[in-house]
Design brief:
The complex is a heterodimer of chains A (85) and B (432).
Chain A: E1 3-6, E2 10-13, E3 18-22, H1 34-42, E4 50-56, E5 64-70, E6 76-78
Chain B: H1 2-12, H2 23-32, E1 51-54, H3 58-71, E2 76-79, E3 95-96, H4 103-117, H5 119-123, E4 134-138, H6 141-156, E5 162-164, H7 166-172, E6 188-192, E7 196-197, H8 200-213, E8 217-219, E9 224-230, E10 233-239, E11 242-245, E12 249-251, H9 257-263, E13 271-280, E14 290-293, E15 298-302, E16 308-314, H10 326-339, E17 348-358, E18 365-368, E19 374-378, H11 388-401, H12 415-418, H13 425-428
Parallel strand pairs in B: 1-2, 1-12, 2-8, 4-14, 12-19
Antiparallel strand pairs in B: 3-7, 4-6, 5-6, 9-10, 10-11, 13-16, 13-17, 14-15, 15-16, 18-19
Classes of the chains: A mainly beta (85), B alpha/beta (432).
Chain lengths: 85, 432
């Protein structure tokens, strides 16, 4: 099992978390073209290397946070820290 | 006249069969103690091919074979960055079936099972297809309802598939715990008698041998580093062994398919997830059919050698890493013991992982793309092995004729723009 460091709870086993997917900006529904929506819905980033993604600590603090992870090695870099740390 | 006949024979595949093995010669060679000869030989890399197929797994090798055998196009190269059949084609759990949920899916996989039926004779190589029956267990009313739905879709398409009750299940697989008092009681199963298992390495080697016999070049340890595209069409590929000029490139690279797509400027709706599997020490033969439980995320079959092969659903997050995890093994063992408590003393021999190219609707992406000459046969996720022969046949026809065959038309890349997704999640996410 790999460990993921939650900014609020510290390092925990990955089974405590849910993978939400790569970070991408939701297009504005008022102005987005169908093409832009389809890109947003169906065409995720899939690099073999570092990717910025969202995780959810479902069995801990139940907060969302972003981190950078190398998909080839599962090496991770936290991008957020809890306030006051 | 003579030339016309031989072209005819080539199309029918009769004149082009690789040499047959004789039982006597095999026995004599086996007794001689000499090493076995290779079934195909390396050729030098040509500077130009009519078709370059990237990915030397069952899909790429089958496409190459059918291009040569059915369409007479043999100036074909299959490139693999590692060894033939070293990706998903050699890592899957070798299960074949056609009891899918959508009519498009059922039609497609049924053709694949037909091709597998005759594959040993076609290729002159025993692929050990063993039709032992396939049981998809239902542990709750909702699954049972989906099984009935699937059975009716299957019957309409002429597929042998039916829902059976616990008493019949017990007869087919006596070691399954069909008692009512367990956490996930077995309420019924979708029974698919033509389903079974096949020796996956033999399928790869059989296609490689037959394709090489027809003049196809197989290049191992040849990694594609770039694809040259100009004016919206493919000009060639660059590899770690030099450049190759070609008007047609086929992407058959499964878990790595978005990386190859990006080289040609074609974005694909795919994410790469590892899928883990495991095998036990060999035990005396006791399990005839293939057992699948979608609720418990596990499928089990026993090989001819007696090992139990277990597979699961994909890992919960994307990765290009094929390392196994203890978490997976523990979860898998727990789920298998729910189904067959008698296995508690059996030891695991090894575990491994393969990369799955998952699409949003659990159906593949096949056919031409916006870049002329760049074809894809990807998005095969967790169900690619059983579709190898039919995919190869259809992709070969697509490339040779320039038209998309009807059998793969529903799986075009353009469906994500048009909104015509082919939702196979119910039948393909776990049920292998």
């Amino acid at each position: 099992m790999i460990q993921i460091r939650c900014p609020w709870c510290g390092p925990r086993g990955s089974a405590e978390f849910r993978y939400e997917g790569d970070v991408k900006t939701r297009p504005d529904p008022a102005t987005a073209t169908p093409q832009a929506w389809r890109e947003y819905l169906y065409f995720p980033a899939n690099p073999c290397g570092p990717v910025t993604e969202t995780w959810y600590h479902r069995m801990g603090c139940q907060r969302f946070f972003t981190l950078k992870r190398d998909t080839a090695t599962n090496e991770m870099w936290n991008l957020e820290e809890a306030p006051g740390d | 006249m003579e030339a016309a006949r031989s072209a005819d024979e080539r199309r029918s595949g009769r004149a082009s069969r690789p040499p047959r093995y004789s039982a006597f010669a095999l026995l004599r060679h086996g007794l001689s103690g000499q090493p076995w000869p290779r079934v195909w030989h390396e050729q030098p890399l040509r500077p130009r091919y009519d078709v370059v197929i990237i990915g030397g797994g069952v899909h790429g090798l089958a496409a190459a074979y059918y291009l040569a055998a059915n369409h007479g196009i043999s100036n074909v190269a299959v490139l693999d960055k590692s060894y033939l059949g070293g990706g998903g084609s050699g890592r899957n759990t070798a299960i074949l079936r056609s009891n899918y949920l959508t009519p498009e899916g059922v039609h497609f996989y049924d053709r694949s099972v037909q091709l597998y039926d005759n594959l040993s004779a076609t290729l002159g190589y025993n692929v050990m297809f063993s039709k032992r029956g396939h049981l998809t267990l239902a542990h709750n009313d909702a699954s049972l309802r989906t099984m009935r739905w699937r059975a009716e879709v299957n019957k309409l398409q002429g597929i042998d598939s039916d829902v059976i009750g616990p008493a019949e299940i017990k007869k087919l697989a006596p070691y399954l715990d069909t008692s009512a008092g367990v956490r996930y009681p077995i309420l019924g199963a979708l029974y698919h008698p033509p389903g079974g298992v096949v020796r996956h390495d033999a399928v790869n080697w059989g296609y490689a041998r037959a394709a090489a016999h027809l003049g196809v070049h197989l290049h191992q340890n040849t990694e594609v580093t770039g694809i040259d595209v100009a004016g919206g069409r493919v000009l060639g590929v660059r590899t770690n062994r030099g450049a190759i000029a070609t008007p047609v490139v086929v992407n058959c690279t499964a878990g790595w398919s978005t990386l190859i797509g990006d080289m040609a400027g074609v974005r694909l709706p795919i994410q790469t997830f590892p899928l883990q599997a495991a095998v036990t020490e060999p035990v005396k033969s006791f399990l005839h059919p293939v057992i699948v439980s979608g609720t418990l995320h596990v499928y089990v079959s026993q090989t001819d050698r007696g090992e139990l092969v277990f597979g699961a659903s994909v890992d919960p997050f994307t990765a290009y890493s094929t390392r196994g995890s203890l978490e997976f093994t523990e979860g898998l063992a727990g789920n298998v013991l729910q189904l067959m408590p008698a296995l508690s003393k059996v030891r695991l021999l090894r575990q491994w992982a393969g990369l799955c190219d998952m699409t949003p609707d659990f159906s593949p992406v096949m056919g031409p793309t916006d870049v002329e000459g760049f074809y894809v046969d990807v998005g095969w996720g967790t169900y690619g092995f059983k579709a190898g022969p039919v995919s190869g046949e259809a992709m070969a026809e697509c490339i040779a004729s320039g038209r998309t065959p009807e059998i793969i038309a529903p799986f075009a890349l353009s469906r994500f723009g048009a909104g015509h997704l082919v939702g196979e999640k119910g039948a393909a996410a776990v049920g292998h």
